[in-house]
Design a protein that fits this description.
The protein has 240 residues and is of the alpha/beta class. 34% of the residues lie in helices and 17% in strands. It contains 9 helices and 9 strands. Bound molecules: nicotinamide-adenine-dinucleotide and zinc ion (ZN). Zinc ion binds next to loops.
Amino acid sequence: MAERRNVVALTGAGISVESGIPAFRGAQGLWGKYDPLEYATLHAFVQSPRKVWEMLSEMVSVCGAAAPNAAHKGMAALERRGVVRAVITQNVDGLHQAAGSRRVIEYHGNMETLVCISCWKRYPTRERWTPGTVPLCDCAEILKPDVVLFGEPIPWLAQEQAEEEARTCGVLLVIGTSAQVSPACDIPRIAKESGAAVVEINPEPTSLTASVTDIHLQGSASEVLGWLVGLLRDPANGHP
Ligand code: NAD
Ligand code: ZN
């Protein structure tokens, strides 16, 4: 990383677990509580938006109350030092930007904006939504957070930029993602096939670990990134 410098990160729900936002899979995962087929597809939203807002309300409240943790801050520090070039995030919580990262590609959108799927008008979430209510558009349609539900396409600019970053980076850091959501899970493979080293930070092995990953740094995002930031500052402190 110190030599190549053009490091790009792909982050997932795991990087925000230590900020109090549960991941989707694994212990305490959101999917244990809400079946994704019933709550996280575009079809479900169109059929029963009020029901889907039960889950969305919880996500908006939890994301709104969360603050960046040491891992988000570590990523921002590495960008300031010219080591990290961009963060591609599958998260919708805005915590990379809150920590000071400037080049953030939001692959699955974000919770800060609501969009009308009838007239495409957009609104800041805090202006239209209060806990216990369902937000409405001026056209009376129920608004949807500007996040990518299953069955929706990836915003084209985010997808173009993410693939370009993956094709041209020297190192891809894959942090806190189970790499099971398509097409985000293609990004590590694209980077690898284009000659990048793939370094995974996750307490658990994933579907990438045995196939695509070159180095698995096993541990929580804050612990491993804290060590990595220190190591890049002072290579003499080389022991995890
Ligand atoms: P996932 O829930 O499928 O997997 C989370 C991964 O993080 C697991 O591999 C787990 O081992 C790892 N993990 C758990 N704790 C960790 C820690 N402290 N440090 C590092 N890694 C840790 O998450 P995903 O792959 O991102 O896919 C879920 C989808 O759901 C994403 O597309 C995302 O948009 C969405 N989501 C977003 C948020 C958020 O914005 N914070 C939260 C939940 C889900
Ligand atoms: Zn509308």
